[in-house]
């Protein structure tokens, strides 16, 4: 088995271009020019959370560095150095070869020295720290937006999230567009060239990683300002305009484009920089005194925003793609656009009636099994949808209400079943403390399940007090 040092020497030790001492010693040494500041950012990518298990490895190597470069570009700095730490389930030389190939392809293109890092055994996790230089007091911050600033973005928005949706089976695209979108997802191009020039003209900047709306809100909050966006000026593929699927451009994420604000007097200068760096740029709105965020169409009608990270409902193809999806979505009732949680709760009734003749111990064993399985399938399905707690997942309602029926043991009394149903739905929808706290602060499959079980607990307390 290869040692950590052999892996580093074989795959990650390269000639330094701008570093006094790099990989191979206890620490690296970098030289800083006079009147310069260091800009530092870190990011972590975890398998099945930030990238799919079957992602092309070379592309993963590229993206792991590129997303960090985007953070440095958003500060107006020039990226120069990086450290890389990888946790691997086992040593896989083919994987390491392809990953390092993609990583150094990105590093060479943008002039980055890899100066250190670490390797260890564990779930596949990639952690990178990126460092860059900028003139003192010239960094672009989120808090710098000024009233009447133009709002600019680079590139096209929504391509990466459409690529992800197509891979998950929730969006059907033409073959050529699908290839283009998957490439945008897996090999984003950080806007380093234009970013290093923006500090002379822009007032604020952020890279678009969580979606246009979410990242713009960070700027507005930090700057105590508002914004009006022009929906038809947002640069995106014609497919989005034609299908009106603006959620991908507004909320999709993974674009790694730059969003920046600048005074109107600098329009010409920014356009010249964009042309020089061969970067597409668009003005999509204006910063306003009112602290609200509005999106309007070409007729000045408001476009109502959603808080969801991605407004793509799972479809029949997604439902049958994996057994976990089929169960988590309640055998299909989670696909309902109206009240999927209520319908999911109702599914618990026939399941209970089917096993009501069995002993209490067998019923409780089934309830326990439903809970353990539920944590796993809800977590897997939520990760596939890239949403913390998708409304389409209803296994939590099914299993929690099933447990209520087992404990209350109403048998075939329709009135008692109805009482339990109403009480559970009240607490599940109302979510008083601590249900609301658990819903917001506990993640993964456990978080999806736990708040429903606590709702069931309170509903049972009320039910038994009424008997």
Question: What's the quick description here?
Answer:
This protein has 18 helices and ten strands. It has 467 residues and is α+β, with helices and mostly antiparallel strands. Helix 3 links the parallel strand 2 (78-88) and strand 3 (113-121).
Strand content of the residues, in percent?
A: 15-25%
* Gross morphology: globular
Query: What is the CATH domain class of the largest domain?
Result: Alpha Beta
User: Structural class, from secondary structure content?
Assistant: alpha+beta
Record the strand order, biggest sheet: 6-8-5-9-7-10
Cα separation of the termini:
66 Å
Q: Any idea what the CATH superfamily of the largest domain is called?
A: PurM-like C-terminal domain
Number of helices, counting only DSSP H or I runs of 4 residues or more: 18
Residues in helices, as a percent range: 40-55%
Number of strands: 10
Largest sheet: 6 strands, mixed
Architecture of the largest domain, CATH level 2?
A: Alpha-Beta Complex
The number of domains: 3
The CATH topology of the largest domain corresponds to Phosphoribosyl-aminoimidazole Synthetase, Chain A, domain 2
H/E series:
HEHEHEEEHHHEHEHHEHEEHHHHHHHH
Q: What Rg do the Cα atoms give?
A: 26 Å
Unreliable residue stretches: 307-312
- What's the overall average pLDDT, rounded? 88
Can you put this structure into words, describing what you see?
The chain has 467 residues and is α+β, with helices and mostly antiparallel strands. It has three domains: 4-135, 60s Ribosomal Protein L30, Chain: A (2-Layer Sandwich), CATH 3.30.1330.10; 142-296, PurM-like C-terminal domain (Phosphoribosyl-aminoimidazole Synthetase, Chain A, domain 2, Alpha-Beta Complex); 316-466, no CATH class. It is built from 18 helices and ten strands. It has helices at 4-12, 57-74, 93-110, 159-167, 175-186, 192-198, 212-223, 238-243, 247-251, 267-276, 316-321, 323-328, 340-355, 360-385, 395-408, 414-430, 435-441, 444-466, and strands at residues 36-46, 78-88, 113-121, 125-135, 150-154, 204-208, 226-230, 257-262, 281-288, 293-296. The strands form two sheets. A six-stranded mixed beta sheet has the order 6-8-5-9-7-10, sandwiched between helices. The chain has a four-stranded mixed beta sheet with strand order 1-4-2-3. Helix 3 links the parallel strand 2 (78-88) and strand 3. The longest helix is centred in the last third of the chain and has 26 residues, at 360-385. The radius of gyration is 26 Å and the shape is globular. Residues 307-312 have low confidence and may be disordered.
